[in-house]
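Quick one: structure tokens for this chain, please?
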Amino acid sequence: MSFARWVGAALAAIAVRTAAAQLPQPELRGDVVGPRPNSLQPGMGLIVPLGYYVRASGDVGYAPIANPSLIADRWRADVLARFTFDPFREQRWGLSVGGGLSFRRHTYLAAILDLEGPEMHGFLPALQVGLSGGTRGALILRRVVKGRR
């Protein structure tokens, strides 16, 4: 094998490995969003790593049972970034803190605390609490990405 082919093969392997490490991580969510009247919003999201310690995420939720005259209160979207203290799942439980924006009827600043549990059948369960125009809490199931939170 010539030197040029060897270098090309090495670069291709590095590019594939880097691309695989940056795969988005899907999640299913069940959010309780306040203030009163609180709404229960099933939703979904996507997480993208921004380096070793930071995760950016976008998620949406929809409250199927709400006051029909307040359509804007039925939908929610979040754009968040969080700093994880255990990015490689070296510990059984992983803590992260973060913030971002939450969009409902108005745009709110969001602050979150996220506790991610051990892997269970290809999923990582998580509990998320925070503030964004009121209190918020979520139970989350994230798809496992090998070697990272």
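The longest helix spans residues 3-21.
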